[in-house]
UniProtKB/TrEMBL annotation:
PANTHER family: RESPONSE REGULATORY DOMAIN-CONTAINING PROTEIN, STRESS RESPONSE REGULATOR PROTEIN 1. Residues 4-122 form the Response regulatory domain. Keywords: Phosphoprotein. PROSITE patterns: RESPONSE_REGULATORY (PS50110). The keyword Phosphoprotein applies. It holds the Pfam family Response_reg. The modification 4-aspartylphosphate is found at D55. The keyword Phosphoprotein applies. This is Response regulator transcription factor.
């Protein structure tokens, strides 16, 4: 399992589901908007996550903005990011509309599937 995960999502229920599925084997840090998530990554060098769960639509700074900052910062070159979205697949794949994530998942999601995707993303690094 992954040692540390940062959840960046404005939905408290998502935080609860992830914590329930991952703790106590995984340390889970929480941010409730994109700006808070980005600030965590910058302000806590000793608590860097092994993986980020990132919602697409959030206040302050959306998931695309956070993801772009992560991918533009050499400190996070190997940081896996799972992009969560309720926008649906649409005609253009999420991978093309929002490039840079390691894995893409639609909301609502199966908690069991999320854990599987977290393990898969962690193995890629």
């Amino acid at each position: 399992m992954v040692g540390t995960v940062l959840i960046v999502d404005d939905d408290e229920q998502i935080h609860q589901i992830v914590r329930h599925k991952l703790e106590p084997e995984t340390t889970v840090h929480a941010a409730f908007d994109g700006l808070e998530g980005w600030e965590f990554l910058n302000d806590h060098p000793d608590e860097q996550p092994d993986l980020v769960l990132l919602d697409l639509m959030m206040p302050q700074m959306n998931g695309d903005e956070v993801l772009n900052r992560i991918r533009d910062d050499d400190r996070f070159d190997d940081l896996p990011v799972i992009m969560l979205t309720s926008m649906g697949r649409g005609e253009e794949p999420l991978e093309e509309r929002h490039p840079g994530a390691t894995v893409y998942m639609d909301k609502p999601f199966s908690p069991t599937e999320l854990v599987s995707r977290i393990r898969e993303a962690a193995r890629r690094t």
